Amino acid sequence: MLKKYLNQILSKKSKSSLKDTDKKKFYNWNNITPYIISSTGDKFISNADLYYSNIIVHRCINLISSSISQIKWKLYKKKSLDINLEVIHQHQLIDLLNRPNVSDNFSEIISSVSKNLLLYGNSYLLLEKNPYTEILDLNIINPENIEFLYQKNKMIGYQYLFNGQKHFFDINTTNHINSVLHIKSNHLKNDQYGVSSLKTIYKATNLYSDILDWNQSLLKHASKPSGTLSFKDGHNLTHEQFDRLKEHFYDNFTGASNSGKPLILEGELEWKDLEKHQKLEKFLELKDSLSRDIALAFNIPAQLLGIKGDNTYSNMKEARLAFWEDNIIPFADKIFSKLINFFLIFFRKILILSYD
User: Fold this and answer.
1) Rounded to two decimals, what is the model's pTM?
2) What DSSP assignment string belongs to 4-69?
């Protein structure tokens, strides 16, 4: 059973209430000419494609995001002159957590935040009042569609492209309260945006895809390496005989449905493999090795993914415990601490948002 990992207390009060900060503009956009810096970094589109095309990457990201989304929240307040905490059951923040928006529940929000962080190294949330219901809404912003706005080397807001329209979200330079939360991973070469773990395994994922393409080609060609069909005595075929033999060979001895069929040769015909079976086995072992490298980049025990050749932990229970202690809890702490600061800055009370 995992211990409670987070007990964050924010004692600093906001200088402005939610109503005071619920403004659309802090700048006159008609009188300034801000320049734009992309917040997406490099190779983000390919990272998204990789999520859908690479089964190991897909499984790693889903395993982490689904695990974090299962964590339950609790809201507390501190009793006066008492070290004990009192659980709060009714509060505006609880209403927000129970209903972030009309489409998603909070578990889905956390899952999306985790996926964006893993894929892009950046995740964005938008907190604003619904113009129709006057209720706070919390929504995910696609990292590929948001950009930073700068003026005189100072960040003044965000520009978000949605349904072909540009939306601007300003940053209040006085109290730094804004409606957009940017959670990012550490990037040693850039202070503006984070970097994805996929960058460290770019070559491994490409090679893994090449192996799958090779396996697919292998399946189409009798599930074995290519070889040569020749006459022992050096006899030459006419063009008609050659075409007929080639057509007969491909129709009857190649493809998945013909895999394993015995090759019957007559006369002086002889078949020779061009590759050794040992090389084939090593090539397939490389696929498992690359899978372990990808799992390592996401800090997931390979045992949990069913990858062959890895038995670091004696059983699955120990592997899952290590996964939670070394991966999920620190990753959740990063996400939740950012959310805590973001949420509680809009409220005056000293609240404690914790999870078990």
Assistant:
1) 0.72
2) P-EEEE--PPPSS-HHHH--S-SS-TTS---EEEESS-SSHHHHHHHHHH-HHHHHHHHHHHHHHH
